[in-house]
Amino acid sequence: MKKHFPLIVKIALVSVYIIFLAGSIVRMTGAGMGCPDWPKCFGYYIPPTSEAQITWQPNTEYQKGMIIIKNETLFVAENHLKTSTDFNLDNWEKYTKHEYAKFNKLHTWTEYINRLSSALAGIPFLFLIVISLSFWKENKKITLLSFGAFFLMLFEAWLGKTVVDTNLKPAIITIHMIGGLVIIGLLLWLVFIVSTHKKTTYKYNSLFNKLLIFSVIFSLIQIALGTQVRQFIDEQVKLFGFENKQYSLLNPNLKFYIHRSFTIAIVLVNLGLFYLNQLKNLGYKLINWIVFLLFLETITGILMYYAEFPLGTQAIHLLSGAVLFGLQFYLLLQSRKNTHL
After folding, report:
1. How far apart are CA 74 and CA 94, in angstroms?
2. Global pTM?
3. Domain residues of the chain, as ranges?
4. pLDDT tens, 253-281?
């Protein structure tokens, strides 16, 4: 099984990026509360497809834990029951974790697919930790990184529940995203360790390596600023409603302007890396993709601000940012002095 370990690491990495994609679509569509409970959805393992399923009905059977909406309030069935002609409050318990009581079929299934992708992503992580144990005597770092990524995935699952329970509290969503980036970093570290090509085609350059360190730090700062801007947008959406997203950046705070202006520094540093790589013929092909993703990030950022969030721009902006971080982190591993012949 050890020979399959590199493939399993890559599958785990792709699964995390799929989660980022699903999560970005959830945020883009405002579907984060499509399922008011966790891990089930309105008390169902397979989400409801019509409002009638979660609306109180007379002479209807309900299983314990099923959730209904009545009078714009969520109620949970305390036991298996069959309703009569009148609503009996004694059979139901008010859902107290939050007060969001709306049903939108599209939102419900979007959020459900997001959760399903997260659950399926756990499968390669299980294989990851099991096989990593066989590397313990050979390279303890492989085992430790694998278990670190696995336990962070468990933490992320718990945090996903907390996101729902707190009705999409912006700070929790930010931590949720940062946790995902840390997992990406751990998996890329594993990919690098088990790679058979890491010492073949690259030239070490001290200036390139130092500039790259600044580039990674700048990107992390930019991501942190971006999550703060996203928090501001979330608060505006709650104020004006999701259908009025054009007001999301009405009178933005200082962090938005810092986030926007800091892009210039990031672009200049990475263009410097691109130029140095070409000038010295260092062989780092990843820098080409990094410059492309920076261009994509900049364009989508401009479109969101000036064109009032065109469809898909939020998802592309978030996902490309996560991929950009991953490429920069892996390039940093490649450019270290002790990784070269």
Report:
1. 6
2. 0.88
3. 1-33+104-197, 35-103, 202-340
4. 888 899 999 999 999 999 999 999 999 99
